[in-house]
Amino acid sequence: MSVLSAFLRRPAAGSIVSLIAVVGFYILFGGVNVVTLFGAASWLNFAANLGIIAIPVGILMIAGEMDISIGAMIPAGSMVTAIISGYYGLPIWVAILAVVGVGVLVGLVNGLLTVNTTVPSLIVTLGTLVALQGIVLSVSVFLTDSVSVALEAPPWAKLAFGQLIGGSHQVIILWWLGLTLVFAAFLHLSPIGNWVFAMGGDKVSARNAGIPTRKLTIGLFMVSAIAAAFVGMCQTIQFNSAQVSGGMGYIFNAIVSVVVGGVLLTGGFGSVFGIFFGTLTFAIVSQGIYFTQIDRNWSNLIIGVTLLIAVGMNESFRKLAMTAIRKKGTK
Amino acid sequence: MEMVHTAPVLELQSVDKSFGPIDVLHGISLKVHAGEVLCLLGDNGAGKSTLIKTLAGVHQPTRGKILMDGAEVSFATPRDAAERGIATVHQFGGTFPLMSIGRSFFVGVEPTKGWGPFRIFDRKKANDIAVKAVRDFGITRIDDGDRLVGGLSGGERQSLAIARAVHFGARVLILDEPTAALGVKQAAHVLRIINEAKRRGLAVIFITHQVMHAMAVGDHFAVLIRGAIAADFRRGEKTREEITDLMAGGETMADLEASIDAQERRHA
Question: Could you cite one Gene Ontology molecular function of this protein (chain B) (predicted)?
Answer without folding.
Answer: ATP hydrolysis activity
